[in-house]
Amino acid sequence: MTILSPAPGSLDDVTTSELALRRFLHGLAGVDQVGAEARAAALATRSIKREAKGWALDMAIRMTDLTTLEGNDTPGKVRALCAKALRPDPSDPEVPPVAAVCLYPDLVATAVRALAGGTTAQGSKDGGRPRVKVASVATAFPSGRSALTTKLADVGDAVAAGADEVDMVIDRGAFLIGRYAQVLDEIRQVKAACGDAHLKVILETGELATLDKVRRASWLAMLGGADFVKTSTGKVGPASTPAVVLVMLEAVRDFADATGGTVGVKAAGGIRTAKDAVRYLVLVNETVGADWLTPDRFRFGASSLLNDLLMQRSKLRTGAYAGPDYFTLD
Question: Catalytic site residue 227?
Fold first, then answer.
């Protein structure tokens, strides 16, 4: 499927007015929904060799934002989650840590303390292993229905507590009625409030209805300064789908071609099995190339996915299938 991208240098005046922004977003080439779904389905049938599967399982672990976003989250639950993030399988030191833990702003400080120095639950140092980052949802997650001052205060609290990354939700109501400048301004203000923290912009694609709107929302987020565009909160269905992620990957590819800027993609919601994760990695490789096969450019937002990745990794390594009882539940 071919999607045209704007010519390099053509974005200078796109955001100067609501009219210019609307013309640009609605001037993007339309997405062939049937073609996108067929392409994603075809890529899902690709098989990979045993050696490549081992690499893919480890990469999927490294790309995981281990997530807990429930009303009954407690500091103890977060500390246990951080221990698992650092050492997903304590019996196998070769298993890499995850990319980040993702939680609500009031629990960021707990996670920062738990992850400080890269210590496991046993107190041993993880010298040389990648640092697990702390990601915080913000901006009245998951609805996004609050005043901008409240949303910015939410971001400020998370960053002050030590969050490395902020996952914001866009105002879908404003987007769906065409108030693009309002959405863009909000993203820019949140980006400024993030300071040095990276910004992931959640589109909540299940509420956008069409792939054309997914593409427009992706571009709007990138124009606003997003470091990542993210599919969903995981609270609305359908969440992440291969066709949606395909369109978002094409958008970041076209944005890179047009501006030279690099933006990542985070697939979140409904991704529970290693087979699903590997399919997404194939989709990434075939759409934007191997440069995006890194936690700096692609993430999975999930809670139960890690357990299946560990089970499949153990099976590949030992030849014996280890059930979920052998791994801690998230």
Answer: no
Q: Is 151 a catalytic residue?
A: no
Query: Which is the catalytic residue, given 230, 254, 276, 308?
Result: 230
Domain presence at residue 30: yes
Instruction: Judge whether 324 lies within some domain.
Output: no
Exposed / middle / buried, residue 179 (Cβ in 10 Å: 0-12, 13-18, 19+): middle
Looking at 46-50, 99-103, 192-196, 203-207, which range is the least confident one? 46-50
Q: Write out the residue range of the structural domain in which residue 204 sits.
A: 21-64+133-302+310-319
The residue from 89, 164, 167, 276 that is catalytic is: 167
> Is 146 part of any domain?
yes
**Looking at the whole model, is its pTM more than 0.85?**
yes
For residue 164 the two structure tokens come to: 């490395």
CATH number of 198's domain: 3.20.20.70
What pLDDT is stored for residue 293 in this prediction? 97
Verify whether residue 84 is a known catalytic residue: no
